[in-house]
Amino acid sequence: xxxxxxxxxxxxxxxxxxxxxxxxxxxxxxxxxxxxxxxxxxxxxxxxxxxxxxxxxxxxxxxxxxxxxxxxxxxxxxxxxxxxxxxxxxxxxxxxxxxxxxxxxxxxxxxxxxxxxxxxxxxxxxxxxxxxxxxx
Length: 136
What we know:
This protein is of the alpha+beta class. It starts with a strand and ends in an 11-residue tail after the last helix. It contains four helices and six strands. Strands 1, 2, 3, 4, 5 and 6 form a six-stranded antiparallel sheet that branches. It comes from Actinomadura rubrisoli. This is DUF3291 domain-containing protein.
């Protein structure tokens, strides 16, 4: 079972090539609600994040997993978000609570169906190692 939030639009437009980022956190059943709430906190700021086209949060509670599918205008915009103090604080708070994987790739245009199809392939693969991966 997978649950997904509605699309949260950012300030950037989705014209031209865009960067897709999929994060996947696997933790304990006890930590999952707190981690998901932390994601919702970040989601509230989305309309004000430079370079953010939008995002969905997702969770697979029976697998103790949650994460995001976020869309950015450039890789620099994604890196700026990763270094954003509220995001850094959340990552530090939960870094030893589970395993995080991240994947990024570029697409020519915004097509939610195609983006989710690829995201599901990545999420269903569940490699044993490493704790962080990036694919292009």
